[in-house]
Amino acid sequence: MFRYIVQYVFTNQKTRLILILTVAVSLCITLIGTYSYSKYREVLDTELNTPNVELLQINVDVTNRAFQESDTKALDAAFHPYVLDFLRSPPTPGQQPEQVLTDYLASLANHPDIRSIAVIAFQPGAALSSKDGYASTWENAADHTWSGWIQELETKPLLVKRRMQGGEGPAGRVELLSLARPVVLEGAVRGAVLVNMDYDRFFSKIYTHLSSHQYVYDLEGELIYPKLNIPVPLPEMDKVMASIDVNPFAYVKVAGQDYMANQAFSNVTGWRMISLVPMEELLKNVRMARNMMLLLSLISIVVGCSAMYYYNYAAFRPLKRINKLLSPLQKSVAQGDLHSLEPVIGKLLRDLSKQSVLAEQSLPELRSKFLQDVLGQTMGSQEILIKWSQYFPDWQPGGLEVLAVSVDHYGKWVSGYAEEDRMLLKYALNNILLEVLAEHWRAVSLPVGKDGYALLLQAKEQGAASLHEEAARLIRVVGEYLSISVSVAIGSPAAGILEVAGTYGEAREALLLRLYEGYGQVRDYQTTDPGNDEEESFAAESWKREVLNAVNAGDKETAVQWVRKGMGEARRHRIQPERVYKAVEELAEELMKLLAASGSKAQTASYSGQGLSTTRLEDIEAMLTGMAGELAEERNRRKETKEHQLVQAMIRFMEENLHKSIGLQDVADHINMGISSVSTIFKEETGSTVYDYLTALRIEKACGLLRETPLKIADIATQVGYQNENSFIRAFRKSKSITPGKYRETSKYANGYADPPKPRHSGVSEDLPEE
After folding, report:
1. Pair (517, 567) in one structural domain
2. What is the DSSP string of 5-51?
3. Are residues 415 and 523 in the same domain?
4. C-alpha dihedral over 487, 490, 491, 494, to 10 degrees?
5. Dist CA 245 CA 219 (whole Å)
6. Cα 758 from Cα 756, distance rounded (Å)
7. Is 763 helix (H, G, I), strand (E, B) or coil?
8. Which CATH number goes with the domain that contains 458?
9. What is the pLDDT of residue 765?
10. Which of 466, 497, 527 is the last residue of a domain?
């Protein structure tokens, strides 16, 4: 019987095919499971090792940053005149150092992470601490556990030590991390500055992961962290360190358990950070996956055999059911053949053809929506690739180009047409763009903003006309048929659809150079100069302030000169267009507020707030000079009015009493008028409320004090009328978008008496509440 079954299986073509497929599928599943298991360690190298290495590097950066802050304080102290005088001539026994040096060290140690700062003289062995005061000898110092190693600084530029401070017993002892810097006088090391950091606070900043263990060793191979609850014994860790050596990671076995060890080194302290990730659970899951693959292979064999057994029934059952549906009146239905399915298949094909036509008609809209999602980065990369293959089956994977097309001087163009006409013109513009490019390029367009289009292109064949020439032809055709001036920018070639968003950003950036180069131009991002971004070449804030001051003073000639000077500086230094457009927009908004407050209507239409970034520098200059000139003339006419004089009296009163906590009632009392009348007159004359104007005066005076004096933030707050320091900080940040401390740090450095700004590190906030 078995012989007949085998003979049937191998002689029947269909069952033989099922058998071959079953064996092939089972073999593939088995090979895939075995290969996946053998390559799992390679996957771990990339998928698991990388985040652990990054976590270690983050911790290295955190510790480096903390030590650099302490090292900065040590260097400041090492060059301070009081410290140098102390080391040149320490007080003799019985004398006390000047209190100013102790106060200086105490202020320098005013940091949550720093416990104390000490100055140590090697000869004759005196010490001065911000916490414990002066000691004429090292042995008499309240804390002198550093005395055994401090003189190593004569041969080393920096020491970082872990040590204990305090009396007998655990309760009286404190664990510290000490950073020591030598102080050199006349070519010899005369002493040291010692910065003592709290061990527990220091290591509370590092990041840990629940599934990994972290260790920190110093240059001598001594354990720095952790100090308690050590998960892996130190002798085992010595074996781990020997195994990993200087490699970034390695697989090790500790107490019979597999671990993945990662390490990173600090270039500041020389510390060695090691993390251990248990591999047992991960390997357990992989072994389970391998076994499941083998089981799946066996199941596929069983399914294949069952398929061969039931083939005759299962293969023709759909055909029988279709025949039965086609011949419902017949009592019995034969097995049938494919000829009986022709009417059903014909109907299905006709329906499919209708759906294909519908899909083809809606494809341009789908492609445009897809391009919108790509440029807006609202889809993941996997979804982008899937939709790309669905919507662009006739396009190649790479060789993509992006154009940005924009109507020149959009604000003026808008003012010349009704909304319905603009919509028709933009529709015609889109058609012209696609028709001109259709000969040599596949193209998809997307309206972007109100002023232009983004186009995704791909050459239909090699040797097509250059994109720069095609873009120039676009400009000519649009100008000829629609009388619309447009500018075109070309981004860098994109190797794939995932790079299109970045390429479009480049095209938009190149398009902004219309500010200097004028209208109706083609700009290629790869050959354009992005412009200068140096702060000193275009002081936007001071320029806007000068223009507004001249306008408020009613000096038309000076206001126009300042406008032209600012535009000339932008043109001469070729400032980045984004900065120029932003400064112009802010100034125009201020001028519009003043024009609205003055009741003038003539020049209001010269600035609509639309399409400013589509305007060249000459037109911007003409717009600003018109607005500033008219407003200055209006201010000049108002100078002799009673209301103007009242407002000037209010402003003088506010300027003279900025240090007081004055308000609207005080201003009204000063000129013997009611609050409502004062608010109305002030708003009409200045375009601002009394409160906003007073706040602006206070912030400007605070800026001057921050730049020109070393006063504390709290003292400055009091001098400009804020009784609460936090209220002052909030008001300053709202006005300047920066804290007072950071404003002083960035502005005073140029004056020479403030320290240079500390480097910023992404992901870690340094806006500590020092102010």
Report:
1. no
2. HHHHHHHSHHHHHHHHHHHHHHHHHHHHHHHHHHTHHHHHHHHTHHH
3. yes
4. 140
5. 14
6. 6
7. coil
8. 3.30.70.270
9. 30
10. 527
Query: In 608-724, which ranges are continuous DSSP H helix?
Result: 617-638, 642-656, 664-670, 675-686, 690-708, 713-719
Contacts of the segment 360-364: beta carbons below 8 A, 24+ positions apart: 363/391, 364/444
Q: In 3-state terms, what secondary structure has residue 697?
A: helix
* Alpha-carbon span 634 to 413, nearest angstrom: 29
Whether 78 shows a pLDDT value over 60: the answer reads: yes
Domain interval for residue 163: 79-203
CB of 261 closer than 8 Å to CB of 252: yes
Lookup: tokens for 476: 């000519």
Helices 467-482 and 419-437 cross at an angle (nearest 10°) of: 140
- Whole-angstrom distance, CA of residue 386 vs CA of residue 498: 12
Is pTM beyond 0.85? Reply is no
Task: Write the pLDDT tens digit of every residue in 342-351.
Answer: 565 566 666 6
pLDDT at 356 over 70: no
Based on the fold, state whether residues 331 and 420 are members of the same structural domain.
no
Strand partners, 214: 275
- The pLDDT of 729-734, averaged and rounded, is 91
Cα separation, 411 vs 390, in Å, equals 39
β-bridge pairing 188-198 and 114-121: antiparallel
Residue type (1 letter), 132: D
pLDDT above 90 (res 402)? yes
For 215, what's the count of Cα atoms within 13 Å in the CB-facing half-sphere?
A: 23
Structure tokens at 416: 């010349």
Task: Say whether both 164 and 118 belong to one domain.
Answer: yes
- Residue 596: how many other CB atoms lie within 10 Å: 12
Angle (deg, nearest 10), helices 280-309 and 40-47: 130
So what's the pLDDT on residue 133?
85
**Cα distances (Å, whole numbers) of residue 418 to 390, 410, 425, 432:** 39, 13, 11, 21
What token pair was written down for 247? 């490699």
Whether residue 151 is contained in a domain is answered as: yes
pLDDT tens-digit series, residues 446-484: 999 888 999 999 888 876 668 888 899 999 999 999 899
Which two three-digit tokens encode residue 377?
A: 């980065």
5 within a domain of the structure (yes/no): no
Say if residues 712 and 744 touch (Cβ distance below 8 Å): no
601/672 same-domain check = no
Give the whole-angstrom CA distance, residue 424 versus residue 409.
18
CA 720 to chain centre: 35
Residue 145 neighbours by CB under 8 Å, 6+ apart? 163, 164, 165
Q: What is the mean pLDDT of residues 546-559?
A: 85
Distance CA(111)–CA(770), nearest Å, equals 9
Q: Do 119 and 86 contact (CB within 8 A), yes or no? A: yes
Element (H, E) at 357: helix 342-376
- Structural domain ending residue among the three candidates 394, 410, 428: 394
Domain count, the chain: 6
Closest Cα to residue 556, out of 632, 637, 636? 632
Does residue 300 sit within a domain?
A: no
Q: What is the CA radius of gyration of the chain?
A: 39
Residues 582 and 599 in one domain: yes
Provide the CATH number for the domain around residue 707. Answer: 1.10.10.60
Report which secondary-structure segment, H or E, holds 275.
strand 272-278
Q: What is the pLDDT of residues 45-59, one digit of tens each?
A: 666 677 777 788 888
Name, in order, each residue with C-beta under 8 angstroms of 87's C-beta and a sequence gap of 6 or more. 119, 121, 183, 185, 190, 191
Whether residue 484 is found in the same domain as residue 363: no
pLDDT tens-place string over residues 6-20 = 655 566 666 677 778
419 located within any domain: yes
Helix, strand, coil fractions of the chain, as percent rounded to 5: 55, 15, 30
Identity at 694, one-letter amino acid code: L
Looking at the structure, tell me whether residues 454 and 541 fall in a common domain: no
% residues pLDDT > 70 (the chain): 79
